[in-house]
Amino acid sequence: MQNFLASGIAITGSGSAVPETVLDNQQLTQLVETSDEWITSRTGISQRRLALPPDSLTLLATAAGEKAITAAGITPADIDLILLATSTPDDLFGSACRVQSELGAVKAVAFDLTAACSGFVFGLVTAAQYIRTGVYQNVLLIGADILSRWVDWQDRRSCVLFGDGAGAVVLQANKSDRLLGFSLKSDGSQNQYLNLSYDGSNVELTPDIHVSTGKYQPMTMNGKEVYRFAVQKVPEVIDKALFVANLRVENIDWLVLHQANQRIINSVAERLNIPEHKVISNVANYGNTSAASIPLALDEAVREGKIKTNDIIAISGFGAGLSWGAAIFQWGR
Asked: Looking at 97, 117, 138, 282, which residue is catalytic?
């Protein structure tokens, strides 16, 4: 129902889902010249989950969404909007509507949002605007990616990094606004450092008309430049979000960064002077799951009892675009 009255926001439930298949570092040594010690020391990753047929992005996203809806204490019929943050849909036209159908969220409008590893943070801020303006009351935000579809398994620099998964949260209208501050950034001049590019060849329709048809190349990444970008820009954007929230670093109870690389997580925490016991990390078990990584880590921490109602959480996503962003919120109502 549209009431067009300004409203606050609460994040009231979380959920996650990962494929059953595990690929550990030792197994990767059979594919490329690498070692468990090399991967672990440089990335902090020990294993990752891979989606095998008949797994699909729709199935993972739906499972995560169902858990988040249950945790929020509502039903799929209560959902007004579904945002699916993904760069790897089952269908290039989008997978959010399939998720809507699978959930039975009969009154929800649904669409995909593509911002790669920043997708969950960008999706959170997008969802918030619909609630703050009173247009929607209950929004399901899902971050999900199956990056194994687009990895070059002969490129030892990148194939060790990525895994598959999904995470979700429910945002609801609330008397008090629990989304305390955010900041979003983009810099297209650095786009070339992380890509999943179209690879087309010319097809002659007539002697004067040639069209491009083809597929997408495997993912490419300049790891050194992405690392440099992340450790510089992520602390800055978190500081900006804290400023908007009128808070200080000391007020943060938990830091949940995009789970790209443990060295990046450690460097950002050190630059912000956030102690290790406040940093949530599960990159060792799942690798880089792109838009899924923040909600997946968040959900695990909630279900383990680490994150509790009223805790102040700082999240930050960063990656292709290049894009990055941060949000500060209190958990629960």
From this structure: 117
Per annotation, catalytic residue among 258, 261, 282, 285: 258
Based on the residue annotation, tell me whether 288 is a catalytic residue of this protein.
Answer: yes
Is the full-model pTM beyond 0.85? yes
Nearest CA among 118, 158, 168, 144 for reference residue 51:
144
Check if 117 is active-site. yes
Q: What is the pLDDT of residues 281-319, one digit of tens each?
A: 999 999 999 999 999 999 999 999 999 999 999 999 999
Question: Choosing from 138, 282, 285, 288, which is the catalytic residue?
Answer: 288
